[in-house]
Write a structure and sequence with these properties.
There is one protein chain. This protein is an alpha/beta fold. The chain contains twelve helices and 16 strands. Helix 10 links the parallel strand 12 and strand 13. It is elongated. The chain starts with a helix and ends in a 7-residue tail after the last helix. The C terminus is likely disordered.
């Protein structure tokens, strides 16, 4: 309320009268106060009005993984630059706590929210939307008019397939995450589309999660049998959890298998062989989400936007060239 008073060049008491529709305020002064309220994003909760609390909320799936931790660190850096505090909470990969946490944070009057939704593409909660709190979804879009910052899932998988094809692989498998996840379906569909667009032989080999070490090893053994008519020589893992399981599984195979992971994992360049990965930049995603949130807090009223940040293929030893590929390349005629 003090911020609004300073912006409108009036007293705090005058702001209180305007917000609570009290008497004794000239119409032109009331208009000036309301304009300041709109610019600053001031809102009321219940019968009493209050100014900003200079705090934003971040809801992530889990704080246990490095991806979420890097997002949280980037959001916290950006909030500090703006002089705000950050409340970070974990939904523990459950959609029900996700909704409850959104409601709890909104009722405590955070000035804005960044949400990494769990499970299916999130629905903008009516209680949050009705509060006027700026809301930015990260990693998955929301159903409804709300800002979103996404990663280029399709481009990332397409780049991985093209890389393996360039290294002589024609029979490639895809190990996806749980299909109820929007990102898992996006990456699966990108694999199938790229497989077809490049004219690779056979039906796309896809196995969706949830996976265990045993189930994933069974899939890889089935795909890589030497007696199979189309032996898979390379696989792409659809997320970092699947990548870790795949690393264990390939050790149980008798024949070598090239592997591309999704998300850079800790020590990926030190394991043997070092891991080729599709790298999302969680710090860039978190920073962009926070920047968009503060743009809204500064008064940006343009229509909701969706930002898609690029991925990057980090090539290491695990996506080795298929030895037979050199023998299959046509030789130049002599003379």
């Amino acid at each position: 309320m003090a911020d609004v008073a300073a912006e409108a060049h009036v007293s705090i008491k005058t702001v209180s009268r305007v917000v609570n529709r009290g008497p004794g305020v000239r119409p032109d002064t009331a208009d000036r106060v309301r304009a300041a309220i709109e610019r600053l994003g001031f809102r009321a909760t219940g019968p009493d009005a209050r100014s900003r609390v200079h705090t934003v909320g971040l809801v992530v799936e889990t704080l246990a993984g490095p991806f979420s931790a890097q997002i949280a660190a980037a959001v916290e850096r950006e909030t500090r630059l703006h002089g705000y505090n950050l409340i970070t909470v974990s939904a523990e990969r459950s959609t029900a706590p996700d909704r409850r946490l959104l409601h709890d944070l909104a009722s405590r009057c955070v000035d804005g929210l960044i949400v990494v939704p769990a499970g299916e593409a999130a629905r903008t909660e009516s209680q949050v939307a009705g509060s006027g709190i700026p809301l930015v979804y990260l990693g998955r879009p929301a159903r409804g008019a709300v800002d979103a910052v996404l990663s280029d899932n399709q481009g990332g998988v397409r780049g991985a397939v093209e890389h393996l094809v360039a290294h002589g692989h024609r029979h490639i498998g895809f190990l996806g995450g749980a299909p109820h996840r929007w990102t898992a379906r996006q990456r699966r569909d990108a694999f199938v589309h790229t497989h077809q667009a490049l004219g690779l032989p056979g039906t796309p080999r896809v196995s969706m999660g949830p996976h265990t070490r045993d189930s994933l090893l069974h899939a890889l053994r089935t795909w890589s049998r030497p007696t199979a008519s189309a032996t898979v020589t390379a696989v792409i893992a659809g997320d970092n959890r699947v990548t870790l399981l795949a690393l264990y599984a390939v050790r149980g195979l008798t024949s070598p298998l090239s592997l591309v992971g999704y998300d850079d994992i800790e020590l990926a360049d030190l394991i043997e062989p070092s891991m080729t990965v599709v790298h999302q930049d969680p710090a860039a995603l978190g920073q962009k989400a926070a920047q968009q949130l503060f743009s809204r807090l500064r008064g940006d009223r343009t229509p909701p936007q969706t930002f898609v940040l690029p991925t990057r293929l980090i090539v290491r030893a695990s996506s080795r060239r298929r030895p037979e590929a050199d023998q299959e390349r046509p030789r130049n005629s002599e003379g």
